[in-house]
Design a protein that fits this description.
Keywords: Lyase. The chain has 266 residues and is of the alpha/beta class. Helix content is 51%, strand content 16%. It has 13 helices and ten strands. β2, α2 and β3 form a beta-alpha-beta unit. α2 packs parallel to α4. The radius of gyration is 19 Å and the shape is globular.
Length: 266
């Protein structure tokens, strides 16, 4: 199935996973509801992320919304009366979402959110747990938990606070207001505001660099961001894998020869 047909398919709410060269793509597709995520869509994410993360041909994973008008407008609230109607069902639903977000956060490869249009609620959580977030100029961010009376996951809020600062995080939650891409960039929620050609170039650049270096960098930076050094052994092991790899020899030789390196991830 082509990427165009994937984008146009909206008959069944789903998340499409496909590979475009060295780029793995996760496409959130529920266009009639601005790509709101159903229970089944959340449930499908861990397996799809795992498949892209373990594919040796994939160098970077892009998360995006179908249709170009929304990244994801959060969880499908129309299901809450059935899926979140008592303590047992709330736990079941939340565990389902937690597994999806955890799978994204723990991916070894670089993950990039491409945010076009609406990015609300659980959609913000997906973007937060990608390594990088690039938005279009017309992107809109909002966490409307206070309007619905739901509790936003505490780990997501801690990540939000680390990313934008406690005061901005509290304003986002206390006001439930919408933020444009310029505001989101200024507070640190968005890495950069980019048009499509620039986004495609950055993703291609990431995909063309040494994957073991990316993995080692990601482990170390994530461990440091959590404020403790429990991940130091994993970081040191990943760094050593870089120096013991064929890619290290290739990168060194290519630099000396003044040619473009050809990395294999080995």
């Amino acid at each position: 199935m082509s990427s165009d047909s994937l984008m146009q398919s909206a008959s069944v709410p789903q998340i499409h996973a496909h590979i475009d060269g060295a780029i793995g793509r996760l496409v959130i597709d529920n266009q009639p509801k601005k790509n709101a995520l159903t229970f089944d869509m959340w449930a499908s994410l861990p397996e799809q992320i795992g498949r892209l993360d373990t594919d040796p041909d994939v160098r970077v994973i892009v998360v995006e919304g179908a249709g170009g008008k929304a990244f994801a407008s959060g969880s499908d609230i129309s299901q809450f009366g059935e899926k979140r109607n008592n303590a047992e069902n709330v736990k079941l639903y939340n565990d389902n979402v937690d597994r999806a977000i955890s799978a994204l956060a723990s991916a070894r490869k670089p993950t990039v959110a491409r945010v076009l249009g609406y990015c609300f609620g659980g959609g913000v959580a997906l973007a937060l747990h990608c390594d990088l977030r690039y938005s279009s100029e017309d992107a809109t961010f909002c966490i409307p938990a206070g309007k619905v009376g739901v509790g936003y996951n505490e780990l997501w809020l801690q990540r939000l606070g680390w990313m934008v600062g406690p005061s901005n995080a509290k304003e986002i939650m206390f006001t439930a207001r919408r933020y444009g891409s310029a505001e989101a960039f200024r507070m640190g929620l968005v890495t950069r505001v980019l048009g499509e050609p620039d986004f495609d170039q950055i993703v291609a650049d990431i995909a063309g660099l040494a994957p073991l270096t990316h993995e080692a960098s990601k482990i170390a930076i994530d461990a440091g961001a959590r404020g403790f050094d429990q991940g130091r052994k994993a970081s040191q092991d990943a760094i050593m894998r870089c120096f013991m790899s064929q890619d290290y020899v290739e990168g060194r030789d290519a630099f000396t020869a003044k040619r473009a390196p050809k990395f294999t991830g080995r």
